[in-house]
Design goal:
Blueprint (H helix, E strand, L loop, with lengths): L9 E5 L20 E2 L2 E2 H10 L5 E6 L3 H10 L6 E6 L6 H8 L1 H4 L4 E5 L2 E3 L3 H11 L3 E6 L5 E5 L5 E6 L5 E3 L9 E11 L15 H8 L5 E5 L5 E3 L4 H9 L2
Parallel strand pairs: 1-4, 1-6, 4-5, 8-13
Antiparallel strand pairs: 2-3, 6-12, 7-14, 8-12, 9-10, 9-12, 10-11
Helix pairs in contact: 3-6
Length: about 250
């Protein structure tokens, strides 16, 4: 694991999704360019990362990739240095997208986040927590209600996953007898590149599956930021709510 530094300079923004829940906008545009109070989700998250000194950003693209590339070129990356990870041939989901961008991310710990998440989470505190404990990954989580939860033990270590709607559960190693807390994932991660050699599968892959595969043997931690503003701008009706939270 990487030690000795407590700052992060690189991030990945996941922007390749089809945005099927965000129709009709995504019939003609990528969700990443959906405007919230005149600024796209992508611009807002690039500027959010800049607040914490992160200006080297890789962005994966698939759905209307050319529109994202054009917006970045036209706006000079909104002040950040942008690298494109082209998934035009096949959308790889979060885990596969991360693995494809591995060559650009394997030097030091980095931040990864979903383009459709808006938050005022104190990323600096989360990064410091990551360097204090040195897990493979630190996951931003809150106490909000959702259908799918990560399950953490008393040391904030990931032990499993539960879909409360279907009753499906998955475990990282054994969890018998443990008191586990349900936490909702916020779509923001701090990841050590030591994760990459442990990612055995290729192609389309969810990062949630990756974490559950490795967490029995390697620490994956939760960072609870309940109380921060957070919205998943997943559906058109959530834009109005986002515009009240983020001016």
């Amino acid at each position: 694991m990487h030690t000795g530094t407590t700052s992060i300079s690189r991030a990945m923004i996941f922007a390749a999704g089809l945005g099927t829940r965000f129709k009709p906008w995504t019939d003609n545009h990528p969700k990443a360019l959906a405007p919230v109070n005149g600024k796209s989700l992508l611009q807002r998250n690039i500027e959010y990362l800049q607040q914490y000194g992160i200006r080297d950003v890789i962005i994966n693209v698939h759905h209307f990739a050319d529109q994202i590339v054009h917006a970045l070129d036209a706006n000079k990356g909104w002040g950040s240095r942008i690298t494109i990870s082209d998934e035009t041939d096949e959308v790889l989901e979060t885990g596969g997208g991360l693995k494809k961008a591995m060559g650009w991310l394997q030097e030091a710990p980095f931040v990864a986040m979903n383009v459709d998440i808006l938050t005022d989470l104190d990323l600096g505190s989360m990064i410091r927590d990551h360097f204090q404990h040195h897990p493979l990954a630190t996951l931003a989580v809150t106490d909000r209600e959702t259908s799918r939860y990560f399950l953490f033990d008393g040391d904030s270590r990931l032990r499993g996953w539960r879909n409360v709607r279907t009753g499906q559960e998955r475990w990282a190693g054994t969890s018998s007898g443990m008191a586990l807390a349900e936490k909702a994932f916020s779509g923001v991660h701090v990841i050590d590149p030591a994760l990459f050699p442990l990612m055995k599968k290729d192609g389309k892959l969810s990062i949630v599956d990756v974490y559950l595969d490795v967490a029995a043997e390697h620490p994956v931690r939760g960072f609870d930021h309940s109380g921060s503003r957070l919205i998943d701008v997943g559906k058109p009706e959530s834009v109005e709510q986002a515009e009240k939270l983020f001016t």
